[in-house]
Amino acid sequence: MILLAAMPAVLLSSCTGDRDDTLPKDNSLSLAYDSVAYDHTAQFVTVTSSDDWTISLSYSGQDTGWASVSPESGSGSRNNIMLTYSENDSSYVRTVILTVRFSGGDSLSAVLLQGGNPNVSGGDDPDPDPWPGLESDPYQSGWLELPAVMEQEGTAFVYHMTDIDGQTKRNYSMLYDAARRIALWVAYPLCHEYMGSGRTDDWGFDPKIPDRYEPVLYRGWPEGGFDRGHQIPSGSRNANTDMNRQTFYFTNMTAQNSRFNQGLWASLENRVRGFASVCDTLYVVTGPIFDSDVPEDSRWTEDNNGNMVAVPDGYFKVLLQYEVSTAEYYSVAFVYENRDYGRSNPEASDMCSVSEVEEMTGYIFFNNLPQSVAGSIKDQLEPDRWGF
């Protein structure tokens, strides 16, 4: 499990300022690659700091000692720290965790996933849980769209970054469920700089999740009546090819009723982009709803390789609008069953409060809102404000 604690401080920043405002000013840690093939054996690590620091390695599972780092300590910023690792001679993904401790007291961690060797036959998996815990994360602190990342067995928190006009920006984050092969929620900011035109249709595996935990969806679902429904829409991330391509990762797909996906849900996604056009930033969280908390009780369908994938019983979409001029927040939520509604447009009766969806799902949305106002903001239900 990758478990990252959401920070309590909220950052009142627009989309155009999130990189500078959300990254630590003094210390950072980054890998050249956080997911590599079985025969990839070295890369550079970058530490940015004004402090002295030390690096240690730890492992998930029984396979240990296959990586090393040099130097193991230093002072100030350095971009040529060498991380070396042996070729993976097993068929399973393995992980190593780098932890940097700074003399000022900070600690940062990063995970490297090395893929399994496809030329080696499988056996008992020595590491059934390849997603170890991390102490902290330099990017996600303060991102307003994030729910609280709660401890759930077999889940992983991951995020994807993208470049916009030469600046690194967050694309989207998700909490991924390996058992159901589905993201339990996908969270992202939305404003004009993310939207343009075009569509890549570049379906493929998510490099941050081992392939064996993802649905294989190069083609549509074999069972009729389902679309490869995006949780973060392609149309909300088409300012450049890179950010749009990331929306076609298999981890972003669900088995969504075709008529619902192409009708009512598509109309809601268009309305959401319209909401974003009249405010500074709109923060969005979308996810599936399951009638049972037990994965075995879910409805299932097959992917292109015959793997079983859970079919959502419904979907939620929660929105938080931020107005820079007034420093005020407004929220609303939508909940639907995964079925054909026989209509194409959202209605006021589809709306509910964010607090109601929290009670329904057990998630705590927009966890970085100031606690003094979070309750009143998430209790709002004002259809007129949203054009209904």
Quick recap of the structure?
Helix content is 12%, strand content 34%.
The CATH homologous superfamily of the largest domain is named Extracellular Endonuclease, subunit A
The name CATH uses for the topology of the largest domain is Extracellular Endonuclease, Chain A
Q: In whole angstroms, how far apart are the ends?
A: 41 Å
Beta-strand content estimate: 25-35%
Counting helices, strands and paired strands, the structural category is mainly beta
Count of beta strands: 20
The secondary-structure element order is HEEEEEEEEEEEEEHEHHEEEEEEHH
How many domains is the backbone divided into?
2
Rg, alpha carbons: 21 Å
Number of helices: 6
Mean pLDDT: 86
| Major beta sheet, strand line-up | 10-11-12-15-18-19-20
Biggest sheet record: 7 strands, antiparallel
Describe the structure.
With 388 residues, this protein is mainly β. It has two domains: 24-114, Sandwich (Immunoglobulin-like), CATH 2.60.40.10; 155-386, Extracellular Endonuclease, Chain A (3-Layer(aba) Sandwich). The protein has six helices and 20 strands. The strands form five sheets. A seven-stranded antiparallel β-sheet has the order 10-11-12-15-18-19-20, with helices on both faces. A five-stranded mixed β-sheet has the order 2-9-8-4-6, with no helix packed on it. The model is unreliable at 1-13, 16-25 and 132-139 (pLDDT under 50).
